[in-house]
Fold:
Amino acid sequence: MADREKIIRFYKGTEGEEIVIKLIDAVEAVNKTKKFRATDFLDPYGCEIAETVVAHYDGISVNFFGGYIGAERQCANFVHEDFMGKPSYNISVVKATWNDKFYRLSHRDVLGALMGLGIKREQIGDLLITLGMVKIICTTKMADFILQNLTQISSAKVSCELDNLGTIAPREERCKEITSTVASLRIDSIAASGFGASRSKMSSMIDAEKLKLNWQTVKSASQMVKQGDIISIRGRGRLEVAEVRGTTKKGRTVVLLKRYL
Structure:
């Protein structure tokens, strides 16, 4: 049996402290029932925690699914080795449409409308927005609530209907490659280069807790990054530190960044 308290202590004081307890509870329930249990939606950091937790328990595996191939937010499904059936995910998708001649709605608009209805973030997966439409991936138990209560997003009236997950195409991410030379691998410097802003602007965003490193809120502008790290800013997308290529004769660091559009 895994040392529950030891795992929790590892995440104590971090953004993962609350979620790790829920994940351990789910795994221990599977240990007792010898079946499976699916969680609500997790961000990539939560998925990493799920993998860490399950590694401490013999005979239990974890799979992830977010409604379509390439989903960022996914549900974890803990499965006992003695379970011979097919574990299921309680995931649905609601399609909301509006008049695109008059309204251009953003991810923030849609998420704000859902949060305004009292829906918890973990009940919502990815929000896939196109012209005049958004596909809201959510838990099945939340789908009916959204159908009945989501009538407006920002100032736009919307119509909602249940859709089929099979209609969602795999995500094809577009990215822009940026080669930059920076004084150091401080996060404010890297983010400024990748997002095309000043370091002081990045510092302000860090102070406002709008910037995340590997899906954890950044507390200090002087925090260092490394190759493979993901930087994200609320409302501005993601930036990958794709490659650290060495230093110039003047001692500056050359980096290859990928800005996901």
